């Protein structure tokens, strides 16, 4: 059984058995018919994925690995906030007439800041420190910038990464304030696992652990029957991650540079509605 399946199944069982519904509260997200999108949630879910053992991808439903990598590169490599630079439609509902999602995600990572060594954006600062200061305990990105929140279509959910080099191993903590378990838990885990693998490669390190800290782990009301159905399925073993051996520059990765070899999975036979 893929470890990502094991964690997802256990997290969802815990949420459904011990979670709290917000049905009696006023909530922000809406379904496409205008009705409020309520959730059942647990606070403070933490999952540790050892990337040396296997790549964390769910098999109980087909995961769109290439699309998730495309979104990750949109944010971390293109540092874009415009859906015209994205090869999927997952952000369309939050974009304005010019395609912008405001000062969120890629925009924040691309802003330059002054340091003693000169000006860097947050991604280049991480790349610099992994090479030149691997013993640093200050290798952190943060895009939850209060100063700009009023200009973001959606406040960042996966908002901070902490990178830590132990020996020659790159470990990371992904801090996430809010997690739509069905739409994006597997999506966020596999894309940030891919990020750790890419950063390790270009820094001459080995990918180690990804620790995923989720403050509010929730299942939307209309997702409950789908979750119940997919967590009852029999998982497959995890596939193997292939990375193009020729790439040693973070900015040279494309969505074809990483592949999942031998990925066996159950089909995703329903369209998952996304609350906006
Ligand atoms: N309610 C909500 N949940 C989310 O997970 C979420 C938001 N809102 N808003 C911003 C982004 C958009 N996200 C999304 C939205 C849709 C898919 C999605 O439809 N995924 C499909 C197909 C992807 C494709 O290949 O185009 C999947 O099968 O994973 C994934 C992430 C994650 N985020
Ligand atoms: O990468 C992402 C982006 C978004 N989400 C989910 C988490 C929530 O269900 C919504 C955001 O709504 P808030 O009311 O702002 O929390 O989007 C995700 O899981 N992963």
From TrEMBL:
GO terms, biological process: methylation
Catalytic activity: dUMP + (6R)-5,10-methylene-5,6,7,8-tetrahydrofolate = 7,8-dihydrofolate + dTMP
Binding-site residues, (6R)-5,10-methylene-5,6,7,8-tetrahydrofolate: 180, 275
Family: Belongs to the thymidylate synthase family. Bacterial-type ThyA subfamily.
Subunit structure: Homodimer.
Record's function text: Catalyzes the reductive methylation of 2'-deoxyuridine-5'-monophosphate (dUMP) to 2'-deoxythymidine-5'-monophosphate (dTMP) while utilizing 5,10-methylenetetrahydrofolate (mTHF) as the methyl donor and reductant in the reaction, yielding dihydrofolate (DHF) as a by-product. This enzymatic reaction provides an intracellular de novo source of dTMP, an essential precursor for DNA biosynthesis.
Name of the protein in its database record: Thymidylate synthase
Chain's gene name: thyA
